[in-house]
């Protein structure tokens, strides 16, 4: 029964892909543009159909919730490292960071350095305990020490909020990219990508998402290396010439060689960096990656692979960013008189690929970026779906779910989150995607990271402390983010921001830790009511000691 | 059919990960990561505020770029160091 329904979904998604491509192709008025767009469309269709076939293949295996949500914990450390790197080489990073460098120079690399510095934190503090104690979501780790029901409800809500914020960044990048690729409006582009991601994640689950991430990560590194090399070839491999040209093209001149925008306000910069540094250790779709490998050693090694690959990728983004300033800013084909790129600054790497490698390379990079978006949003949907099924529903009902029900709820939740992602993507058109990602990580740093840290490393945490502190972290970070300049003024258009900083992490993370501590020590509670300890925690500690 | 209910409390088990050698190493490395990151950030902010305006176009890696690259490289080195330390598992 399941297979014919899956086939129907696959056919619908493929038809929708071809339909949009066909209408976009016929809408181009100029012959030369038609030829240029044709290669893009071919790459796009090949990637879209391949990813759908992957999801179809994986759907036949995803008959249990363990297979659907964590690929049966059968992914190797190398594969997981590539998949984690793929998660980080998202549209937000590739398009957003390049766009940020194009707009203001080294400011974009500040975010890249912050993202990379967050990986040692993940490795040292949470990767191994998660692998040892968790199965489907980070709440599994918390509930080894704490009462299950309130903790699962809290973890489910916070995961869905964080996933929604993260989805917005990816959908904005997707909408701009597809809009440029096919000459269709931003709205239809977001809806098309949204429908494809719903089909992909609902059918294929974690195994399909992982394999698409792996292939995409390899293609993304290869494509970025190709663009960076071609940029350097243009300047005779002389980086000084590249910087000179970039500085002379940019209205800020020499200032693009330093951090400027972020450094204007030290507190805002520190808060943004703080959120990114600790936020990765609270991102549900990243934490979930540690459930797909077999043991702690594989979790550790996969983080090392991922860190190396992400570092390499960011180094190439540095060249791509400055290359785009040097080669695109003064070219009327790609930018208007004020230097703004056609289609938005987030499209800097796509335009640069066209400038240095022609339409074939641009088409290839566009298709890779599209596959990136599809894979990352699918991972996000699966993380959200997992938390909805294993945390929210279990917490609200007070009953463990059987395999069939858990799988069904996961798939329904993936579809619902996909629709939510489409709506949020439509509302946030034009925002810098790297910045939106930073806001999502700030919420993850405030809501999830303190609970994980205390649950693993502090004996005194009570369920009451975790629930009160976690709720405080989630609500305060969401409210303050909403009151900040980006959401309050730019997205909602409500006038001057009430809270002066975009990222509230500098205030909310320490406060959340403090509230958890205060509530935990303030009131002694009957252990049978508020604490729940499993032998597995002791076993984990004992094996660490050994 | 009755579904299995959620877990009940049985006992409280002490959890002191920092008490062992691996735990101490973890926290030292976390501190090293945070300190290096904050140092990089402080340097960048200080440099941006006290940079001298010059008409000469920059032609080489700026100190800010080197600080960022050092911080990134340090993150990779710390991760590698931890992974290749003997863990006994």
Structure description:
The complex is a heterodimer of chains A (546) and B (89). With 546 residues, chain A is mainly alpha-helical. Chain A is 78% helix and 0% strand. Chain A has helices at residues 2-27, 31-61, 65-70, 77-88, 91-104, 107-133, 139-142, 148-182, 186-234, 239-249, 266-279, 284-287, 296-328, 348-397, 403-427, 433-447, 449-457, 463-482, 485-491, 505-522, 527-530, 535-545. The termini of chain A are far apart. Chain B has 89 residues and is mostly helical. Chain B has one domain (17-84). Chain B is 58% helix and 0% strand. Chain B has two helices and no strands. Chain B has helices spanning 21-50, 63-84. In chain B, helix 1 (21-50) runs antiparallel to helix 2. Chain B is elongated, with a radius of gyration of 23 Å. Chains A and B meet through helix 6, helix 10, helix 11, helix 13 and helix 21 of A and helix 1 and helix 2 of B.
């Amino acid at each position: 029964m399941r297979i014919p329904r899956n086939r129907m979904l696959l056919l619908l998604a493929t038809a929708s892909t071809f339909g949009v491509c066909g209408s976009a192709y016929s809408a181009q008025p100029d012959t030369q543009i038609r030829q240029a767009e044709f290669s893009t469309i071919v790459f796009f269709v090949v990637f879209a159909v391949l990813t759908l076939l992957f999801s179809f293949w994986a759907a036949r295996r995803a008959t249990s919730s363990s297979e659907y949500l964590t690929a049966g914990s059968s992914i190797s450390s190398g594969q997981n490292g590539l998949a984690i790197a793929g998660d980080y080489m998202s549209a937000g990073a590739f398009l957003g960071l390049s766009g940020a460098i194009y707009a203001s120079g080294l400011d974009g690399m500040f975010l890249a350095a912050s993202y990379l510095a967050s990986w040692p934190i993940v490795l040292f503090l949470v990767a191994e305990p998660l692998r040892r104690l968790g199965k489907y979501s980070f709440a599994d780790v918390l509930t080894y020490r704490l009462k299950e029901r309130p903790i699962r409800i809290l973890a489910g809500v916070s995961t869905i909020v964080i996933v929604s914020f993260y989805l917005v960044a990816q959908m904005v990048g997707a909408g701009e990219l597809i809009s440029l690729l096919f000459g269709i409006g931003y709205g239809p582009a977001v809806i098309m990508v949204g429908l494809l991601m719903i089909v992909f994640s609902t059918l294929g689950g974690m195994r399909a998402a992982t394999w698409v991430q792996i292939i995409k990560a390899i293609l993304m590194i290869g494509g970025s290396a190709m663009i960076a090399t071609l940029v350097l070839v243009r300047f005779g491999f002389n980086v000084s010439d590249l910087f000179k040209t970039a500085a002379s093209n940019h209205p800020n001149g020499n200032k693009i060689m330093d951090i400027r925008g972020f450094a204007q306000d030290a507190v805002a910069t520190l808060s943004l960096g703080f959120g990114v540094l600790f936020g990765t250790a609270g991102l549900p779709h990243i934490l979930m990656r540690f459930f797909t490998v077999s043991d702690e050693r594989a979790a550790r090694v996969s983080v090392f692979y991922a860190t190396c690959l992400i570092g390499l990728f960011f180094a190439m983004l540095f060249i791509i960013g400055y290359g785009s300033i040097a080669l695109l800013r003064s070219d009327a084909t790609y930018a208007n008189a004020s230097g703004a790129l056609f289609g938005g600054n987030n499209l800097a790497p796509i335009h640069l690929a066209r400038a240095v490698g022609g339409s074939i390379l641009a088409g290839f990079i566009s298709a890779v970026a599209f596959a990136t978006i599809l894979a990352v949003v699918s991972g996000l949907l699966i993380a959200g779906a997992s938390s909805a099924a294993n945390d929210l529903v279990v917490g609200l009902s007070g009953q463990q779910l059987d395999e069939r029900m858990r799988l069904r709820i996961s798939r329904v939740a993936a579809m619902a989150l996909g629709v939510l992602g489409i709506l949020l993507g439509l509302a946030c058109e034009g925002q810098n995607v790297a910045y939106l990602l930073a806001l999502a990580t700030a919420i993850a740093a405030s809501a999830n990271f303190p609970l994980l840290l205390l649950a693993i490393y502090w004996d005194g945490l009570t369920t009451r402390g975790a629930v009160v502190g976690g709720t405080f972290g989630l609500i305060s970070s969401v409210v303050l983010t909403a009151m900040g300049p980006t959401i309050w003024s730019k997205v909602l258009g409500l006038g001057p921001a009430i809270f002066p900083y975009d990222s509230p992490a500098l205030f909310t993370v320490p406060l959340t830790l403090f509230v958890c501590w205060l509530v935990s020590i303030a009131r002694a509670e009957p252990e049978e009511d508020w604490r729940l300890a499993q032998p597995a925690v002791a076993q984990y500690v004992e094996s660490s000691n050994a | 059919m009755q579904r299995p209910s959620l877990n009940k409390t049985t006992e409280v088990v002490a959890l002191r990960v920092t008490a062992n050698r691996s735990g101490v190493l973890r926290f030292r490395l976390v501190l090293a990561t945070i300190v290096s990151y904050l140092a990089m950030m402080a340097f960048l902010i200080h440099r941006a505020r006290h940079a001298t305006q010059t008409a000469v176009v920059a032609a080489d890696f700026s100190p800010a770029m080197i600080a960022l690259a050092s911080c990134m490289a340090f993150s990779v080195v710390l991760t590698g160091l931890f992974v290749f330390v003997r863990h006994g598992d």
